[in-house]
Every structure is written in structure tokens, then in C-alpha cells.
Design brief:
Elements: H1 3-21, E1 59-66, E2 74-82, E3 88-96, E4 104-107
Antiparallel strand pairs: 1-2, 2-3, 3-4
Length: 131
């Protein structure tokens, strides 16, 4: 497939996704809404591997889903405070009930930084969305 056809195909997919999700075209886009916030894990005392940084307030690998029966319901998930060699201090979620204008945020207790313990099967130093 030529580069031109790939670009046209990807552009068509983007337009189709925008139409299905009710997203306006780029030239008439509404302002963006920030979903993430400062890290709730900033005071986590997990010791890194020697020389490995943790990127505080970094949000990576975001995923967003829209309820096909009610497009006002949107959920997003992301890794919060990613370590350079993989994993994050926690997995955050955001949920909107008004089509993305406002968001509530929380997190699952999958790591020690997010309240995980051996009792709730979350006694891990890092969390990841990958198996």
C-alpha cells in the first residue's frame, strides 16, 4: 500500500472515530480538559533500583473509552509516576458523566504506593497495565 493510501486510510479512520464519538473537526475543536492532576503518590517511599529515576507527575499509556449507549459516560486510565525501566507508582482512573467536561479521579490499590497490601493482593512496588 502506498504512503498516500495509508494516510488517506488513517485520515478516514480518524474522521470516522471523531464522528462516532461526537468529536468536532480539528478546525472547530472545543478547548481541551485536563484530566490528570498532581500525583497522589508523591510521598511514596519505594526505593528505586540504583540509578533509576521515577518520573513524578508523569502520566503515560493513557486509554479512553466512551460508553456506546451513553456518550456522556467516558472513562480514562493511565500509569502515574512511571519508572524508567517499567511500571509505575500506581494506575489512575478518571471518569466523566458529562461527555468529558468534568472528571472525577481515583486509583486502584494495585501497588504499595496506592494502598496495596498483602491482604488486598496489592503488595507490589510497581503497577502496570501490561501482563
Amino acid at each position: 500500500m502506498s504512503i498516500w493510501r495509508r494516510c488517506v486510510s488513517l485520515g478516514s479512520v480518524g474522521l470516522l472515530a471523531g464522528a462516532l464519538l461526537g468529536v468536532p473537526a480539528a478546525d472547530s475543536a472545543s478547548p481541551l480538559t485536563r484530566v490528570s492532576a498532581p500525583s497522589p503518590f508523591a510521598n511514596c517511599a519505594i526505593q528505586p533500583l540504583p540509578g533509576e529515576p521515577n518520573y513524578l507527575n508523569a502520566e503515560v499509556e493513557p486509554w479512553v473509552a466512551v460508553n456506546p449507549r451513553n456518550p456522556a459516560n467516558v472513562i480514562g486510565v493511565w500509569q502515574q509516576d512511571r519508572w524508567r525501566s517499567g511500571g509505575a507508582s500506581g494506575l489512575r482512573t478518571g471518569v466523566s458523566h458529562d461527555g468529558g467536561r468534568t472528571w472525577d479521579r481515583t486509583f486502584a490499590h494495585f501497588s504499595r504506593c496506592s494502598g496495596g497490601t498483602s491482604r488486598n493482593n496489592g503488595n507490589y512496588e510497581r503497577a502496570s497495565a501490561h501482563g
